[in-house]
Amino acid sequence: MMIHEITAQVGSHKRRRRVGRGIAAGQGKTCGRGHKGARSRSGFSRKAGHEGGQMPFFRRFPKRGFSNILFRTEYAVVNIKTIDDRFEDGAEISAQTLVDAGMIGNAGQLVKILGDGETTKKFTVIASKFSKSAQEKVTGAGGTVELVVRTPAGPAAE
Question: Rounded to two decimals, what is the model's pTM?
């Protein structure tokens, strides 16, 4: 088989539905919308939470109490075992080196190092937060731990 002989798989491209083109087309007159009602009208769109005039579920109940969702701090977590697998002895590990290794999304994220796994390599780990076991494992192997105060937008003070 040659590259010029390859064709699209049968059924992979479906023709778009041309509505309102007469009764013979199968989608004439009402264009597949049926008769009357909100769904048949132009401009109708079913939004999430819309219940057709009935009081929406979310609005039926009183909202009380405190939610931390606006104020919580999210960390990109990295375990000691993944650091030990990906980095050489004596490496300096920061948010940027973790991004370069593909372990976190971006360098602006807050990073927390967790103590799952073991290490015998000497690392200099720079992060926003450490679990107690992670700190003990890094220092126990002869490495150093540097705590960096960061805001999620970027470094505040280093």
Answer: 0.58
